[in-house]
Amino acid sequence: MEKEELWKSVLSELEIQISRPNFLTWLKSSRLVEIKEDGVIVSLPNYFTKEWVENKYNKLIISSLKNIDYSIKRVEYIVESSPKPSVLSKEAEQKVSEKQLLLQETKIDPETNLNPKYSFNSFIVGPFNELAYSAAEAVINNIGTKYNPLFIYGGVGLGKTHLIQGIGNEIKSVYKNKVKIKYVTSEKFTNEVIWAIRNRRVDDIKSVYRSVDVLIIDDIQFIGGKEKTEEEFFYTFNSLYENNKQIIISSDRPPKALPVLEERLRSRFEGGMIADITYPEYESRVAIIKTKLQEKELELEQKVVELIAKKAQRNVREIEGILNKIVFYQSAKGKILGQDDLEKIIADLTDKGVSNISPNQIIKSVSDFFEIMPNDLTGRSRSKELVEPRQIAIYLLRDMLDMSFPYIASKVGKRDHSTAIYAYKKIDNDLTKNPNLHQKIMMIKELVNKAE
Ligand code: ADP
Ligand code: MG
Hints:
Layout: H1 3-17, H2 20-27, E1 31-35, E2 39-44, H3 47-56, H4 58-68, E3 74-79, H5 90-103, H6 130-141, E4 150-154, H7 160-175, E5 181-185, H8 186-198, H9 202-210, E6 214-218, H10 227-242, E7 246-251, H11 263-270, E8 273-277, H12 282-295, H13 302-311, H14 316-333, H15 339-349, H16 351-355, H17 359-370, H18 374-378, H19 387-401, H20 405-411, H21 417-433, H22 435-450
Helix pairs in contact: 1-4, 6-7, 8-9, 8-10, 12-13, 12-14, 13-15, 14-15, 17-19, 17-22, 19-21, 20-21, 21-22
Bound molecules: adenosine-5'-diphosphate and magnesium ion.
């Protein structure tokens, strides 16, 4: 049977077995890339999805594959990020990148690849990114000698690219031409390596990357699993490292959670400074909004600022989106928007975020995640397996909907609201210390937001 057909029939079976939103979210863009002797390789669009599918649907997938072809015993999941490397000719690649360049509002420095809009000064600091920020400061003041490599990780839209480019821009402005800097995404690096191998120009790449003083690599998670690229990166890394050159890396997860990375590379990363950027709390969100307003020379009432901070919880990018829309509407309409208009814009943009989530949606998503029945979660059973799901449900009801503790307690089968307070505090507290829990919560939030 053909790959496409095989996968199509697996998907149609899965579609019946899992809920519609889950199917659309996690499996719709999956692809079967290869059929091997005893298994298949399935590609997914990103690591978040890969982890989710691997943990939650692997068994189901294997059993539906087995229904069709009994020799299939295992599934390997890979991440295939678009655009695919190496399909474009060099000319075509150049055209694409020219087009992208035109779309940029600011000019990217061709020497360093840095975008001046990500300045170090405009990076807003709060408890959620303090650690990463002070590590960045230390690197600027002690290039190559203090924290090497500097490894920054965190979820999307939280400012990784801004911070690592900010370091580059700051070094550039302080040390002028004395320090050679290069910024590259791991996707671009991969493309270059592949192109160089094809055209027998690997030495060019070597000389370019090994002659810099500061190498900044963004989204390193995309490098893993591509053998040649990883090897090239490893040698580049070593050569720079041994010569006390600074290496700065960003990733969507910590080194030990980079799934396909070679051990030797992982241990190099762990030998430097690792700092995370977490989700901004309410106060930081207010600070971010106020600073961005100043930058945009825009004024909003305190009430509106607070409303945005309350609604835009996901990341800094979401906050920027809202402010940009407001600027756009104001200049398009040519007048200052009234309170009602503003509230409508915010509600529209955070639509999926917070405004119309119901408590039942949260209960359902938590149950889906832990594969238990909603009735068990809200019932009175004291079964051990229900402890964590209940605590997380309590936490989310409070965090996402700001519901009162007595109400929350009644929702999850507790007589006493002090239990709900305890559970909320526990999760809230554990979240900062336990990346695993944090990941779980973010995955469940994602589910809640996607639920219909
Ligand atoms: P990531 O690389 O982590 O996905 P980005 O660096 O692209 O996130 O950040 C998304 C947007 O939010 C960018 O426009 C960036 O300038 C802005 N941003 C993120 N964090 C901050 C911050 N601490 N201060 C100012 N702007 C920020
Ligand atoms: Mg980024």
